[in-house]
Amino acid sequence: QTMSRFLPAAITARTLSDLGIKPETAMTRVFGGIEQSTAAVTHVQGKRSLDQLDAITKQSLERLYDFQHADGGWGWWKDGESDHFMTAYVLWGMSLAREAGIEVKQDVADRAASYLDKELIEAETNYDEQAWMLHAVAVYSSALVNGPSALSHTAPAANQFQLKAFDNLYVNRDKLNAYTRALLALAAHNFGFKDKARTLIENLENGVTIDSRPDTSILQEGAQNSNSSVIATAHWGEDGLYWRWSEGGVEATSFVLRALLAIDPQNKLIEPVTNWLIKNRRGAQWSNTRDTAIVVLTLNDYLKKSGELQPDIGYELLVNGTSIVSKQISANDALGAPAKFEISRELIRDGANDIVIRRTNGAGPLYFAAQAKFFSFEEPVAPAGTEIFVRRQYFKLVNHATLLKGFVAERVPLNDGDTVRSGERVETVITIEAKNNYEYLLFEDLKPAGLEAVEIRSGDNLYVREIKSGALATSAASGSYSGSADISPTASRQALSFTSTSDFTGRTRWVYQELRDRKVALFIDHLPQGVWQLSYEMRAESPGDFHALPVLGHAMYVPEIRTNGSEVRIRVVD
Asked: Model pTM?
């Protein structure tokens, strides 16, 4: 807990130092959509000053000094045995603090480094642990040689323990996961092993997960042409459900990006990896304190390499040939809230509209977003999505008598415009595609007025199951599902529903459902990247012609991540 408080403070201090920004300057800015007027009301005790960074780091360091064991290490408690991971974590944090210009007791850090040196060989069969320890002592050695006043980076010499540990890990690098391979690459870089660092970067490139078309979905029918301006995403590590600390996607991807920036700053993966990290932020943080601290450190490295710290850019915004604004951005504006410009309705025309952002001077990237509000008369409503996508299918459950099994329900697709009789059961199958890992998703399935849910009590157990990629590929190849350009109602006849347990990975997530009068609300607290499916039953009741309006989904705390399915028209007869 002390490290999780100290490390973000040390990294924030280093970030401000690297940016050349005084704390009092940063405190006047508005970040992450946090408006000071509302924050003061909702978080009465929440206001903090960046001037407290000095106090936090001092208090944390004193506590860490007090918790150090006689052998130089740290454990989870003040008493008890020293722990390899925790000792390396503390030493790494202290080394970062020293690089940020924070004074750290030399004898405390030296004793910790000596403890890790002695323990490095003991962890020769635990590659995760050994890589983490070696990375920590490599950063410590580098911080000794390259303090805040150093004019250039010099590689420290590795001692005999560090060399043996490095050789052991390098020989067994095929057994390392992405996280530990990135740690080894950073250690190689710090020790000056340039060729081996490059080899490890090449190994990492071979294991990356890339989504080159993050704006398209395998669930939704229609033209699936990716916009060439959309940046791909790339990441390493597991998608949110893992047992080993070194398999977490955010930390693994962060350390790989740190290695790329240090060893191969022109690597083509840097932009998509940075994009993935930004898209996996939740509000003003990542999944936990340590994740957040490490990503902040990584993005700080990215800013230094990308040359975005000292912008001097001029631009003009034009809509259909009419100039809306001309603006100049200087270094003083780097931490300013984004500028917003409303476009008058008179400038918007039917059909295509041209929005042009033209650079008038300077260099460096400009980031922009566009938001449009409109009312559509289309029928049926077409599916759409940003980051998440959803598809709903209906199946009539028709009972047939059999000799051995009694009555067996046959699943008959119920497509747009089809008919169902009162009393017949209808299975609703909802398939969700998540392009990244998400938390706190809400899906609202708007029911056709003539159908009611079979279950009458909210909160009963419901699970969403992950579909195997192989099952999706087989379904597409067999023609039972196709991502063709057919966006007519008949496209929904192409089923994407699986019933065999062999079609699923075995991973599930619990879903809290609430049965409302006009919808079924489904809450998922955590959904890893992948394609997931759930189902529940309804019963046809009131005769008539009804519209099943689209399923609506969004991330509750990141509302720009949202989706809607397609509309279906159903007739219920007596």
From this structure: 0.73
